[in-house]
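Appendix B, Record 12. Input sequence as logged:
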Amino acid sequence: MDWRNLNVDVESRRLLPIMDREVEKYYEDYRDMFLSSAWKELIAELKDEGEATDNITEITTVEELHYARGKLSVIARIINMPAALDAAFEQIKEDERN
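Logged structural output:
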């Protein structure tokens, strides 16, 4: 084991590899982004776009339907990113406890 790549988790008093700090920073960076005004503006615009795309009465071809479904799928994924990342981070913390 390379002791230079270790740090101590203060809460559990366990030694953690540096990768854990990198993963934690990854999630912290996302959380900071989710709290920014730019993120909130993006989400508002995506919700508006999703509502406009959700109007199926204007879809006339199968290709347009598939395009709209794909667009709505991407919008939903972006809007749901904070919840998905929080769940993933909590799962990592739970796995570390066990």
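The two ends are 21 Å apart (CA to CA).
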